[in-house]
What does this fold into?
Amino acid sequence: DGSIVMSSKGTVTYTGLDSLFDDSFAVNIIVNLPAGPNVVTFSDDEVSGNAMSRLSGATFATTDFVNPTTLFNPLGALEINRGNAADTLTVNALPDFNSGLTIGSEPNPFAATTFAGAVTLAAGKTLRTDAGTVAVHSPLTATFGQIILLAGGDITFSGGNVQTGQFVANA
It folds into this structure.
């Protein structure tokens, strides 16, 4: 159970779904996770070059969606909000994703965010995560953009690096 807020459709609330497929174009997508706790994976939808991504976890419907578009608004972004203080999120490789990405917020951070696959955003975009801990295992790239990693605990780098116009890390 949960909801997705899209600028093109408003709030879509669902109960008891196995999967959700959204092929509409939206400038901004906000995903509010259910009460959880949730173990979430954000990844490509397994079809290369189709501009779609996937959110999955055992506590909510697997959701495939067209990545937020920057065609009509240069600020197009995806925001993923936790449903529980114990929520964790793993970001796998995102070959088709290049919009802005916000994971958690300062008042409502995830327990942990792990970057397990390469993430390359479009020029001028921002990647931000607020979490108890942040682990970076693959390259994060935001050319002329920002990468902001905020953690109440540790930020660890193991095989990953950051390439960006502005980098902020605060643990």
